[in-house]
């Protein structure tokens, strides 16, 4: 079967690998001329790692990951530890360690696994045609490609989604801006084996260990939508936003490199249940764009890839039927996680500060049980559990 995958992000590349493993001829089309990941790093929780293990990439993913053995929440203003606990009970329950990894390194690894000869850069999709027997992709450069199936893995601003749904979809601003990047691991910040998050005032500052002695950091700030970003002002802005916060947060702001720091206004899309139209189907953010607040965006794209390949391999009533079965196996799970992430974003970022303060108070009494239970709830129900 000839499969056209639109989008060379993590979801599209993983889908290509999963489909190729079943003998399909897969070509990936990407609009940019140089494939660059958005964001500095990504948390791959155990369900996402298992999907990559399933594709034979376990050792390579492990090599990219940091030793995230513990988790801690800290009062951002006083520097007092609210709670700290081992993640071993999580690993024992779900059977796999999670790995924070560099997005660039993960994407480069997936790119190499797919092979440059199977990826066409500089192909911006502008139209789709499905005649019932084949599907044709039309690109801005005038080229076309025809296959048996087209998978839209073209992200939150998906062109394929417009084709599937018959029109544009509104993105919803979640009310906060995320600054993220990489800094060297330092005892002045946090223990090297710990995911540490400082909280207060509806804001967050966080560091997670990844490979090669680096922390992935992010700082979340509730802000109006549409403020003009100025990299030269990032440090001054963050110093203002986190004025009075504990010394490690000040050290983080002082250490970060504005040139390599990303600033992202966080959005999601209201869940929808229709992912297919004829021989065309959505995957990843194109089908379920979410906030990063429970760390499941990339993991759900990996799950999509596995279920899609299984559906096309095991169902014999036709391509359209197989794609609908893929859709129906995935849309309820991803919709629930999008809404779960949205709820967590509101609590974390002070949409109702009374609720947020109650969460801070809960953290001071936390022994890890409730937090691990919540993470496990996101992981269970994956296709390779």
General description of the model:
Its cofactor is FAD. Belongs to the FAD-dependent urate hydroxylase family. Pfam families: FAD_binding_3 (PF01494). Its EC number is 1.14.13.113. It contains 13 helices and 18 strands. The protein is α/β, with parallel strands linked by helices and 385 residues long. It has a domain at 2-68 and 96-171 and 269-351 and 368-379: FAD/NAD(P)-binding domain, CATH 3.50.50.60. A 7-stranded mixed beta sheet has the order 5-4-13-14-15-12-16, with helices on both faces.
What does the secondary structure layout of this molecule look like, with pairings?
Elements: E1 2-6, H1 10-21, E2 25-29, E3 41-44, H2 46-54, H3 58-64, E4 70-75, E5 81-86, H4 88-94, E6 99-102, H5 103-114, E7 119-120, E8 125-130, E9 135-139, E10 144-147, E11 149-152, H6 159-165, E12 171-184, E13 194-200, E14 203-210, E15 214-222, H7 234-241, H8 247-255, E16 262-269, E17 276-277, E18 280-282, H9 285-288, H10 297-314, H11 319-348, H12 353-363, H13 369-379
Parallel strand pairs: 1-2, 1-11, 2-7, 4-13, 11-18
Antiparallel strand pairs: 3-6, 4-5, 8-9, 9-10, 12-15, 12-16, 13-14, 14-15, 17-18
Helix content: 25-40%
The description of the largest β-sheet is: 7 strands, mixed
- CATH class category of the domain at 2-68 and 96-171 and 269-351 and 368-379: Alpha Beta
Distance between the termini: 28 Å
Contiguous helical run count:
13
CATH topology descriptor of the domain at 2-68 and 96-171 and 269-351 and 368-379: FAD/NAD(P)-binding domain
CATH architecture of the domain at 2-68 and 96-171 and 269-351 and 368-379: 3-Layer(bba) Sandwich
Catalytic activity: urate + NADH + O2 + H(+) = 5-hydroxyisourate + NAD(+) + H2O
EC number: 1.14.13.113
Keywords: FAD, Flavoprotein, Monooxygenase, NAD, Oxidoreductase, Purine metabolism
Cofactor: FAD
